[in-house]
Structures are given as C-alpha cells and as structure tokens.
C-alpha cells in the first residue's frame, strides 16, 4: 500500500502496530491493527474494512484487556 495524503499536508503511511485505547475508564490494548499513520501530526486513519470499532467493543463487552486484530475472526 502506498502513502496517502494527510489533512495536515504531510503523508500517512500504512503500518500495523499495537495501540492502547481508553473505553469508559478501561484500558484495552489492540495488537496488529492495520492503519494509516502520519508522523507529523500523529493522525491515525483506519480503512473502512478494518472493523476496528466492533473489535474494541467486543473486547470491552467481554472484559478483555488485550485483543489481537489478526485473531479477531476467531472471536466473531
């Protein structure tokens, strides 16, 4: 995947990495999450097919502190 323009005028590059999220006071770490990231402004953009929000909702609803995007299909 190539780089895409960022709203700040720089470029976002495609990467996969772990991210930490706070959901209603609970911390959830998601691993191997594919996204576009800008090093200049730290903007993070997800592709529509990533289904990131349902994964975090599942982790929250099931009291998980960590979830791996690569294993997400096993949870659905």
Q: Number of DSSP helices?
A: 1
Radius of gyration: 13 Å
Q: Could you give a short account of the major beta sheet?
A: 5 strands, mixed
| Mean pLDDT reading | 91
Number of domains: 1
According to DSSP, the number of beta strands is 5
Q: Which spans have pLDDT < 50 for at least 5 consecutive residues?
A: none
Distance between the terminal alpha carbons, to the nearest Å? 27 Å
Q: What's the CATH class, please?
A: Alpha Beta
Secondary-structure blueprint:
Blueprint: E1 4-5, E2 11-23, E3 26-38, E4 44-45, H1 52-61, E5 66-68
Parallel strand pairs: 3-5
Antiparallel strand pairs: 1-2, 2-3, 3-4
Written overview of the protein:
Helix content is 13%, strand content 43%. The chain is mostly beta strands and 76 residues long. It has a single domain, classed as Roll (Ubiquitin-like (UB roll)). The radius of gyration is 13 Å and the shape is elongated. The mean pLDDT is 91.
Describe this protein with a few key phrases.
1 helix, Ubiquitin-like (UB roll), 76 residues, 13% helix, mainly beta, 43% strand, elongated
What's this, in brief?
The protein is mainly beta. It is built from 1 helix and 5 strands; from the N terminus they run ββββαβ. The protein has one domain: Ubiquitin-like (UB roll).
